[in-house]
Amino acid sequence: MLYSNKNKYLQQVLKQIKFPFDKPAIEQEISCHIEDKIDFYLELGHKRLEAEKLALNEMGDATFIGKELNKQHNPLLGWAWKISSVVLVLFLFFSVIEIGDTLICALITNDNPANSINKDNIVYNIKLNEKVKIDDTVIKFTQIIYEKDASLSIFYDCYDTRLWGTGWSTENIGAIKDDKGNSYYSGTSYKGGSIRSRCKRTVRNFPNNAKSLIIDYNNFNRKYKIEIPLQRGISNE
Predict the structure, then answer these.
(1) Are 200 and 114 in contact (CB under 8 A)?
(2) Which CATH number fits the domain that encloses residue 163?
(3) 3-state DSSP: the chain helix, strand, coil percent, rounded to 5?
(4) Going by DSSP bridges, is the β-strand pair 197-203/152-160 parallel, antiparallel, or unpaired?
């Protein structure tokens, strides 16, 4: 086949390429080869149109070249690489969000509801690292503070693992019990809004001699149970 138009030649080559993301690079590479040949014929004294026609026909059959290039740029491998790249980007994105939000929360101390408690009122303060997951929401229990007025506060962070998610209702972390099976309902809740919310659940009239705190969640076939010893608290921290 005789070719007289560079753009039509390139289009015929690119029709054979199945992996779309490689087409711009292939087009640029073929175009550069054609221009080099055109320059060669121009130097020999040919007019532009004649030089282009000679260069294109010297390049060879566009369909054959396109098919050979398609073999080198295997579409299956190309898509596998593309998908893995997207997965990696999403993984890094969520990792940056989690790490960045944790760092911000650590730096902006006013966002920590535990700072609102007067240290003189603290009987014991227990640091935790207990993590549970309900659907797409992660809840990380971070601290227990017991005060002189028999108020016990549970501090926890929560975040949705989905970019578009709004999260599970974090104010209901489950039934609050002591080691004797008593349940405690009266109290307050706090939730600080951000990608990673910092929350507090406080119950009143919790006994100062309780040996453990139990958080028991059982709702719509979603369950978790955490038992926290209370004898290792650090007094007045």
Answers:
(1) yes
(2) 2.60.40.1640
(3) 40, 30, 30
(4) antiparallel
Encoded tokens for 31: 């175009």
- Extract the tokens encoding 42: 């121009």
pLDDT class for 130, splitting at 50, 70, 90?
Answer: very high
> Does residue 194 sit within a domain?
yes
Shared domain check, 207 and 140: yes
Q: Are 191 and 211 in contact (CB under 8 A)?
A: no
Model confidence at 81, pLDDT cuts 50, 70, 90, reads low
Q: Is residue 92 part of a domain?
A: no
Answering whether pTM is above 0.70, one says: no
**Sole residue written with tokens 């004797």:** 180
Is 234 within a domain?
Answer: no
C-alpha span between 76 and 62 (Å, rounded): 22
Distance CA 152, CA 207 (A): 9
Q: Give the separation between CA 205 and CA 232, rounded to whole angstroms.
A: 20
The neighbour count for residue 108, using CB atoms within 10 Å, is 11
Domains contained in the chain, number: 2
